Amino acid sequence: MENKLTFNIEADELELFIDEVNEYLQVIESSLLQLEEQASSPETLNLIFRAAHTIKALAGTVGHQRMADLTHAMESLFDAMRNNQLTPTQKIVDELFDVVDILKILRDEIINQQASDIDITAVLSRLHTLIDQNSHKASSPKSEVSSENTLTPEQISQIKKLQEDEQSVFNVEISTDAKTFAPAARLMQAAMALLDAGQIVRQRPTMEDLSAGKHNNRLEIILATKLEGKAVKELLADVADLSDFQVRPFKVEQPAEAPPPSPPATAPKNGNAPVSVNSTSKTVRISVERLDALINLVGELVTNRNRLKQVEEILRSQYGKDETVGELSESSTHMGRLIDQLQEEVMRARMLPISHLFDKLPRLVRDVARTSEKQVDLIIEGAATELDRSVIEVIGDPLIHLLRNAVDHGLETPEQRRSANKSETGTVKLTAAHVEGRVVITVQDDGKGIDPDRVRQSAVKRKLMTPERAAQLSDEEVIDLIFQPNLSTAEKLTEVSGRGVGMDVVRTNVERLGGSVFVESVLGQGTVFRVTLPLTLAIIETMLVELWNTVYAIPITGINDVLYLSDTKTDTISGMPAIRWRGAVLPLINLRQSFADPRLGDMPKTVGGKQAIVTVTWGKQRCGLIVDRIIGKQGIVVKSLNSIAGEVPGISGCTILGDGRVALIIDIPGLINAELRLRHVKEGLKNGHSL
Amino acid sequence: MYKIMIVDDAQFMRVRLSKLLTGHGYEVVEAENGEQAVQTYRSIKPDAVLMDVTMPEKDGLEALAEIRGYDNQAKVVMLTALGQESMVLQAVQAGAKDYVVKPFDPDRVLRALQKALG
Prior knowledge:
- Chain A has 24 helices and 22 strands.
- The two termini of chain A are 54 Å apart.
- In chain B, strands 2-1-3-4-5 form a 5-stranded parallel sheet, sandwiched between helices.
- The two termini of chain B are 14 Å apart.
């Protein structure tokens, strides 16, 4: 391909490289936000400078010249800012945000090994103009090198004394190429090398002059040393970037006045500066694949432990209180505990603070606020909340969607807010917290709220339901309609109620993760979305149940209770089976019917085991699932079913049990949705409504 | 086998350098900031140090000064980048044996190390 790019990077280095670049881009982005809010401190400026500097080095190392050039310009700007030579105006900050976006595109060139169509010439020249306009160039007087070539009487007598002491005295002349990087430092390096070799009688330019950049790319030193001329040359040959050097035996010329020799630079002597003894936390980065491999291995262990337990039970039933069986049972229990701990540790290794995601959001909110002309304060709480990286990876898009909506549609314009007696700046609050083994993320705005009547009208207009049905629904139920796919395409709704764009996608995605999302809204006061997610997607606790002769696993997080069918009285309410449970009517779903497969033929009508009802909750919906038999609780490793069987309604995945059987994992939201929606349809038909 | 301490806050750079050095028969220890560098130097006493200038916690210049203060024979080669002329000067003045400009040429790094080690 024509625009293919190659970089000096190995495939196995790419992930680390990109991770690191992203990390520093993130630092720049959040620091820019601080700059914008004038909340920056000198530390921020140092941080942002270092970040640009490091990206420059990274880009340069893999040979991405344009990326290095751009970060170099950026770094210069930050340097000018931290030296108070440049004030970060809004225009500059805006420009820098654009640069960050361009850097992301350039970064992607490395991933894709393909040139993008981005042209950085214009932005580079704008940055350079900014640097030139604003930073006072440090004047570098380079011409003040004394041309005096004479020695003081003291120097001459010193030389004589040194020669008597059997030292050789050399006149050393060194020059560097003006084009090398930091020529003064190379000259200094040469001077330091000579200083190590003996005594410097005179040095021009002096160390001070070199430090101040006063040199004409030349250095002249009179050196007294016990080394031979050849050895001195070897020392200088070790200094890089010298264009030429001469080492000649020193001949005394005319004694006269000359600048006094500079004292040799001394190394700083603060060796006993306080060093804090905090133990350096040793961390390593592990690739996700490796962690996943570990998870899978632990999963196999869990499976085998379960198998071992089964074998143990069989042995116990055969041999009773046999001593060996007892020992086996003891060691298998112990191993079980170890495996539990191992599993927990591995899971913990996969946990990341949600700040990995949250950190990206202030920028997003800023951009949305700008385009929609809103004023927003974004408050973030609980950014340190940890959850599995698999969850973090997939929750990003739904969350971004909610946040974007909160700003774009939830908040009013400053004028609207003023006339509603609210402060012109709206507040959007994003929180994360652990609640009962799950993560709860909320997105809350203090905007105009959702008007249930408007949603009703819209739902009727869209023919989602009859006016009668719409009137029957409570406000709460109506507001929940914003998650309906058909409603979400309603342009009108977006305009009038301000909600609905793609909310169905948000709910679908969150539920696919075994989570839930609900909305509460008070008209005129604001809206809050509450997303509940499992901590991890890899291993879940389940209740194993049997249906006919297939094992199903019901995620324990959705289960409330287990009842025996024989202990309850089944009524028929609205033509559907239901029981009274805890003072409420609980619709029943017979899983035998839900998962009846015509290919298997009819299931036997009679059930061998003791039929049970597992009551489950999903959001505000409760129902009871009728199963043939309860097997027991078990932690399982989730495996995807998609690659084998495609999407199966009501089933979210599968797992391999200890005895090698496959168990299907029940997708509670999917099941409830499918079953209860079906009932609404039937109900509607019975009542003579057209849909 | 010479033991070299690599100090850089960017892990990618450490990995790169580490690959290069171990590939040429050096043993490598890593530190990710100046503070760690000083502590690691004290506990491990490497034969030479390759150290970045710009780092969090404690920058390369401070770390260099502390390391040289602790061991005035310390052989430190600075890693630097364009735009840091004055820092390099300070580093050399503070006893850095050499410096290599990033993006670095592997041969230059190796040569600088060989020279520093003598």
